[in-house]
Amino acid sequence: MKIAQIAPLAESVPPKLYGGTERIVSYLTEELVQQGHDVTLFASGDSVTSAKLVPITKMALRLNPHVRDAIPHHMILLDEVRRRADEFDILHFHIDVLHMPMVRDMLDRAVTTLHGRLDLPDLVPLYRAFPDSCLVSISDHQRLPMPPVNWGGTIYHGLPADLLPAKTETKDGYLAFIGRISPEKRPDRAIRIAVEAGMPLKMAAKIDAVDRAYWEQEIEPLVRAHDNVEYIGEINEQQKAEFLGNAAALLFPIDWPEPFGLVMIEAMACATPVIAFRCGSVPEVIDHGVSGFIVDSEAEAVAAVHTACQLDRAGVRAVFDARFTAARMARDYVSLYEDIITGRASPRLTSLVGEGPDLLIA
Fold it and tell me: pLDDT band at 210, cuts 50/70/90?
């Protein structure tokens, strides 16, 4: 199958540091190549892939100090995809909404994975205007705010099985927080939970410009106030295995409708249990009592810390192997691609509703 993967340009594929969407695009692209497909990746020029790379920009936009507006660069991306569209059986977009008008006449070979939150009011009229585009959610919860659209399926993220080695024994005994320093990620909760549990907390997180004031006013004073809390900054993929693998548990104390939460399965790959608040995708990703614990309060999280440390870490890794590998993710997408090509995932599904049951049978 000839497949085009169209990535955002903010980060390289894979990203040098933080970047969940581009990381998933990389894992999917490499696994599709491994499974024998002819894959072309449209991405920034500093991307690294075994697929055919079509470089749209010289480097990732976030790393280019001269870039002020990402939209012009994505227009160039879309024009290049449009120009070469007939070369592919499937066009797989990971850029949210910018391409929607362009693919109106390509619905028989286009699919869009929605990687972000969908509870923003401006998205409702947009998706109502494009109800026939085949969309993929990354959790069932992510779909809830959406108007009726043509869902091709929910496909959970996956990681290469050998990317992060399982560490079934750890002696360091610290709690880990990884991601962004931002209000919705609730690093303040992580700090209070660690303090109450009497355990060290290591925080590996980026600070975006928009969150700089939140860090300086809310989080940095908490870090300075507690000797058991260490902020180590943003880490790369090579550092992640040791950081997560040596942790007793990962704290995922979010306070927003998380579409998926890649760090949860990264921790599970390292055999590290996850303590996560019941938001967004969390109940779909965590097997409560097996790969971690789902909690509703800081008090529950503190209690779960000591229980999580007693979990069978091999069992945590077993959940990852069963549910969250890149090989499984790629197979799921290939199955969807085939459904789109054969018409089983009909782009006209939403407009056929009510026209009679025979029209809905593939």
Answer: very high
Of the candidates 355, 244, 258, 340, which has an alpha carbon nearest to the alpha carbon of residue 1? 340
Domain 2-160+328-352 indexed as CATH 3.40.50.2000: yes
Fold of 174-322: Rossmann fold (3.40.50)
CA–CA gap between residue 328 and residue 316 (Å, rounded): 18
pTM for the full predicted model: 0.90
Distance CA 214, CA 113 (A): 31
Supply 120's token pair. 């923003």
Neighbouring residues of 65: CB distance < 8 A, sequence distance ≥ 6: none
Q: Is 1 exposed, middle or buried (0-12, 13-18, 19+ CB in 10 A)?
A: middle
Two tokens at 85? 């569209």
Residues 62-91 have pLDDT tens digits of 889 999 999 999 999 999 999 999 999 999
Q: Is 170 helix (H, G, I), strand (E, B) or coil?
A: coil
User: In the chain, what are the domain boundaries?
Assistant: 2-160+328-352, 174-322
Going by C-alpha positions, the residue among 295, 272, 316 that lies closest to residue 173 is 272
pLDDT tens digits, 220-252: 999 999 999 999 998 887 889 999 999 999 999
CB-based contact 205:180 (threshold 8 Å) = yes
Examine domains 2-160+328-352 and 174-322 and report if their fold is the same. Answer: yes
Side-chain half-sphere exposure of 104, counting CA atoms within 13 A: 5
Tokens of 60: 């990732």
The one-letter amino acid code at 136 reads V
Q: Which pair of structure tokens corresponds to residue 306?
A: 């000591």
What is the model's pLDDT at position 56?
A: 97
